């Protein structure tokens, strides 16, 4: 699995381009990071841990100031940009290049806020360790996908293996998984779709190509590309479910 993650996300410039592409084609123009921020009492947040921090996407939307921000990610290439984003709003910045789940060489009851944005489905086994390093009064914030994001493609292909990845921690099963470790769990839905029109075939091709490492677990990516581009040409418009859910939990 982690080989697939590295293959898909290791090209940082492409990863950032895809992020902008998704934003530009989204029907819901609200920034989900800002939606999530409204659920947090920031007056109580001085120390932050970001699990699966990537290039600092979550930190780029924060205001601060904070005492410290620690990021954990499996890609060393994300370090410089994460540290730049976090350094803008925190006195101390730490980046740890490691694969989760794994024991965290961090003290118990340490962080005011732990965040995991679009990453926890890769390492749900880390929940116990995340709980350990979260302060008793702290908050765990998760942004994750809905399993329904595959429904359009599943009309034509069997994405059972890809679906298992999302089911690692999804909108549908997230609360049940959090209940094993946390209390006072709340959530809100972020309804969205990404839409491509007939003159946007290049963007659709780029989006599918970015997902090829995961698609290849079930189907030859070229077949998916050909089918989706043909459908876009014949229908003139394609819409893909992009519903997400935000969870907030305490110990």
Offer a concise description of the structure.
It contains ten helices and nine strands. The chain is of the alpha/beta class and 251 residues long. Helix 2 (12-25) crosses helix 8.
What do you see in this structure?
- The protein has a 7-stranded mixed beta sheet with strand order 3-2-1-4-5-9-6.
- The longest helix is centred in the C-terminal third of the chain and has 15 residues, at 221-235.
- It has 10 helices and 9 strands.
- The chain has 251 residues and is of the alpha/beta class.
- The chain has a single domain, classed as 3-Layer(aba) Sandwich (Rossmann fold).
- The two termini are 29 Å apart.
- Helix 8 runs antiparallel to helix 10 (221-235).
- Helix 5 links the parallel strand 4 and strand 5.
Gross morphology is: globular
Computed over alpha carbons, the radius of gyration is: 18 Å
Low-confidence stretches: none
Q: Based on DSSP secondary structure assignment, what is the total number of beta strands?
A: 9
Number of helices: 10
CATH class: Alpha Beta
How many strands, what sense, and barrel or not for the largest sheet? 7 strands, mixed
User: Which strand order does the major sheet show?
Assistant: 3-2-1-4-5-9-6
H and E string? HHHEEHEEHEHHEEHHHEE
Return the structural class. Answer: alpha/beta
Distance between the termini: 29 Å
How many domains? The number is 1
Q: What CATH architecture do you see?
A: 3-Layer(aba) Sandwich
CATH structural fold name: Rossmann fold
The CATH homology group name: Vaccinia Virus protein VP39
- Percent of residues in helices comes to 25-40%
Mean pLDDT: 93
Q: Which strand-content bin applies to the residues?
A: 25-35%
